[in-house]
Amino acid sequence: MDSRRAPASRHDAGQPAGTPADAPTGTSAGPPRAARANAVLSVAVLGLSLAAVAAVVPQHLAAGRDEAIRKGPGVTAVRRLSEWFPGIRGTSGDTDVYVLDSGRPGATALVLGGTHGNEPAGYLTAIVLVENAAAAEGSVIVIPHANRSSMTHTDYQEASPRLLEFQGASGRRTFRFGSRATNPTDQWPDPDIYVHASSGQQLSGAETRNLNRAYPGRPDGTFTERIAFAITSLVRAERVDLVIDLHEASPEYPVVNAIVAHERAMKVASGAVLNLEFDDITIGLEPSPKNLRGLSHRELGDATGALALLCETSNVSQGRLRGATGARQVIEGTDDKYLRAARLGRLAVPFDERGWPLKQRVGRHAASVGAILASYTSANPGRPVSLRGLPSYADLMARGLEPFL
Ligand SMILES: [Zn+2]
Question: Which residues contact 112 (CB under 8 A, 6 or more apart)?
C-alpha cells in the first residue's frame, strides 16, 4: 500500500478543496440539530470501536501465550532453545526444549515439530511424544514449536481456525493453529527477493520468514535465521545423531506421505520405510535435492554430523483446492472438493470419504519416528536409541488422539 495516497483519497470523500467545514448553510434550525446528531453518532461509533477493541485485545494477547504442554513421565529436563544461542533470549523465537534421557549410553535424536505452525500433525506428534513417551536407550530431544513465532498468528485471508480443541484424558486441551511463517510483528518488512545467506539462492520475498528455508542460519541474521542458527547450534553442541523434522503438506503437493532424506540418511530412511510397510503404512522415500537450499534435511545434513530426515503427511486444510475451512476440517481431514479432485486424478495421495484425519496423520508421524529410531539402531548397534510409551499407529487409529492428551 502507498501511504502517500491517503490525503487524495480523503479528498475523494466529497468536500471540494478550500470549502470551510463550518461554512453557513443558510438555514437557521439545521446546524444545531445536525451537530447533535453528529455527536450522538460519534459517541455510538466510539462506543462500538471500544467494544471491538475490548473483544480483540484478549485474543491478541492470548495468541502470544504458550499453550500448556504437560511433562510426561519420560521428560528428564526442560531447557530453553536460547541456552544454545543467547541471541534469541527474550524473543518469541525462544522455546521449550524437552529432554528424554534414558540414562543409558546410546545415540541422541532430535525431533522437531512446529517448524510450520499450520501443520498440526507435526507439533501434535511432538506433544504426544513429550506427554507419553520415555527414552529406553540413548536420548531424544523434542522441540514441539521449532518456530514458536509462527504459532502466534494465522495466515492472512486463509480463514484458518485459531484453535483446535480436544477433550483429552488430562482435561480439556486447546492448541493453536498457526501460520507457515514467522509473525510479521517479529520480522518485517519482507524483501522482494529472499537470498539464502550461505548459498545465494533466490526465492520469493515471503520465504524470508520460513524457518525451513533459513538453515543453517546466522547469529547476526534475521529473526528467522537466528532461530535456525539456535537449532543448528543445539545439533552441534549435543552431537545429535539424527534429526527428524515433522511436517504436513497439501494432498496435491508432489512430496506428501513421504520421508525426505539427506544422502547420508538414505540407508536409515529406507530401512524405516520397509519397517513401516510391514505395518501396512505406505510411505514414499525422496532424496533431499542438493540444489534446494535452506531446508533442514539439506543444511543440517551438510553442516553437522547428524543424519537429517523430514516427514510429510497429507493435510487438506493447507491445500489450494480445499472447500470451507475450519477446525473440523483440520481434525477430520475430509473435504468434498478434494474428493472431487481425487476422482479427477489430480492428487498425489489416495483420497476417499475417510480423508486423512489428524489421528491418522499423528499416527503416521509417530510410527515414522519409531521406525527411524529402530532403523538407526539396527544400522548402529553400538549406539542404540529407542522410545517406549509412544502410542502406535493402531492405537491412534482405534482410539483417537484424546486418550494421549
Ligand atoms: Zn512444513
Answer: 122, 126, 143, 146, 231, 243, 244, 245, 246, 296
Looking only at the bridges linking them, the beta strands covering 258-261 and 284-287 are parallel
DSSP assigned state of 217: -
Whole-prediction pTM value? 0.86
Res 283 pLDDT > 70: yes
Distance 247 CA to ligand 1 centre (A): 4
50 in any annotated domain: no
Q: Give CA–CA dist 102/96, Å, rounded.
A: 19
In the beta sheet, which residues pair with residue 245? 112, 310
Q: Is residue 25 part of a domain?
A: no
Q: All 3 cell numbers of residue 128?
A: 504426544
Range of the domain at 113: 71-404
Domain presence at residue 13: no
Backbone angles phi, psi at 104, to 5 degrees: -110, 145
Please give the pLDDT value at position 24. Answer: 40
The amino acid present at 264, given as its one-letter code, is R
Would you state the pLDDT for residue 35?
84
Q: Which segment of 12-21, 67-76, 175-184 scores lowest on mean pLDDT?
A: 12-21
Q: What's the pLDDT score for residue 62?
A: 64
Ligand 1 centroid, distance to 295 Cα (angstroms): 10
Residue 60: predicted pLDDT? 62
The domain total for the chain is 1
Phi/psi for 135 (5° steps) reads -75, 135
Is the model's pLDDT at 49 over the cut of 90?
A: no
19, 22, 24, 34, 36 from 29: Cα distances, Å: 21, 15, 12, 9, 12
Q: How far is the CA of 44 from the centre of ligand 1 (A)?
A: 45
Distance from the alpha carbon of residue 250 to the mean position of ligand 1, in angstroms: 10
List the one residue out of 292, 239, 286, 293 whose CA is nearest residue 265. 286
- The domain that holds 124 is classified in CATH as 3.40.630
